Every structure is written in structure tokens, then in C-alpha cells.
Hints:
By secondary structure, the protein is an all-alpha fold. It is built from 14 helices and no strands.
Amino acid sequence: MDALHTEFVPPRHIALACLVAVLWGVNFLAIHASLEQFPPFFLIALRFGLLAIPTILFIPRPKVKLRWLIGYGLGFGTLQFVGLYLGMAAGFPTGLASLVLQMSAPFTVLLGAIFLREKLTTRRVIGIAVAVAGLLLVGVARGGAGSWWPFLLVVFGAFGWAIGNISSRLAEPPKPLHLTMWMAVVPPIPMLAVSLLVEGPDQIWSSLATAWTAAAVPAWVGLVYTIVLGTVLGSGIWVWLMKRHPAGVVAPFSMLVPVVGISTAWLVLGERPGPLELVGGAIVLFGVLWASKMPAAALVLEPESSIPAPPSDPPADPPVPDTPKLEAAAPR
């Protein structure tokens, strides 16, 4: 299994990572539509509750340690969307949220170095520093508009995403889609409890009472998109990629999400980021790009055959001449 954890990324895996970026970029429009109808905490509980019911009934529990399943559910499913939904509900622009959330990539690289002992090269350190500088520039621009708290909430969501990335890598699920589905079992009950305490029964009931009108159709379409395409398909592919490659190699592909998110928000919602925000966003993307670029020497050929090599001969026997030897990847 460790032989798959290589920094070489085949073209088909790159294409899958780009597909996830497109799905998640459009997902911000879907979230925006749903937040127009439902309060943030209740929307998180509703989103994952609708996914948790068929998961418990029809999907076998993933064969992973419980702590990594809970860690993935709390990080990716709970903390990420608490920060994102609250920030967007507080007025943080939809397209810009897709950019700030991509700080999950540098956060993942740092957490991967700490918990997975992945190599933190000078290039990655410089890239992370540049990305953080760009993020601060975006924060200054939003702070000037009186929007510090929504900005910080989305940054918090990015950190939650990084925790989910690391938990999924540590889980090493034999069936990544099962982990993605069962992650949805973690958020509903705590998020519903928080919603009742913070948002209150009246606000929840009011959103449900008008949820069956024609005006609420975009909210339901957005919710279905978020569940099916954003969570099941997008997250399933993402976990599958995280299982096969180092976290620091896969995570930077998320930098494509804001390109889609800002473009679609511009076209559909008419959101136009300010000059300082665009410059800061470009710096963030450059930093992530720089941190993720691999030297040619880092590329590793994958073995063409999955058939295990026979056990080595006893030391007393001489090696068979002209027999090629494949060296296994170092265990993690």
C-alpha cells in the first residue's frame, strides 16, 4: 500500500484533481443559494443529515480507526463548513470565499510535516510564506471594508479542511468513498444542537415553512448539488487521491477552486473583487504553486505489475544472475 504514496502524479490523477476543483468551485454558488433560505448551522445539519440516513442504512462502515473517522468528520465536515457558512452568511463574498478557503493547502502541508513526517523543503516553506502574505493582503482589504470577522471565519474553515485532509490520510481507508459517506454521520446531531441554541427554533421553523415555495427551489437545487456533486463525488475522488499521494502533493490542486469560484460568482452574482483582493489572491495562488512544484528528481516510477516479488533466498544461496530487483518504497 505504501508504494502508492508517491510524489509522481499520473495524468489521469491530475485530471481527477482538476475535476474536483471545478465541482468545488461551482459548489460555492450552490452554498450561496442554500444560505438564502436556511440559517447556517441548520443548513450544515440538514446537508449532512440527509446524507447520513442512507449512509447508515446502505453503506458498510469503513474499516478505519474510529478516531480518524471522527477526525475527518469534525475537520472536513464540521469545522470547515462552520467557518465557511458563517463567514458567507455574515456577508463574505462568495467568490472570494472560494479563494480564502484554499489556505487549506498550506495548512495541509504544515500539518503533513508535523503528523505524517512529510518532507518540508525550502521551496515549500517559501511558498507557504508567500501564500500567507497574500492571504494577509486579502484580509487587510476586507478589514478596510469592516469585514474582519467573516474573513477570519473562512480562514478557520480552511484549517478545518486541512485537519480533514490529514485525518483521511492517517485513516488509509481501503474504500475511500465509504469514508467520505460515513464522515457525514458526525456533523448532524452536534450541528442541530448548536442551531437550536444559537439560531433558535423560530428561525429554523420559519426557514422550513417557506421551503416549499417556488422561491425556495434554488436553495434545494443548491443543497442537492452540494450533497451529490460536492460531497459524494468531489470528496470521494479527493480522498481517493489523498490515499495514493502525499498530502502536500494533492492539496495544492485545490488552488484551481478559486479560479472557478470567482469566475462563476462574477458571472452569476455580479461579484467583482477589488484590486487589492485580486492582487492578494494572485499572491496566494503563486505561493501555493511554488510550494507544490516538484523537482524532476522527485518523480518516482510506479511498478507496472502489482504481483508481489517472491521472498528473498537464504543468505547462503548466491543471487540469481541477471534478475532485476525492485526496491520497495520506504514505509511510513
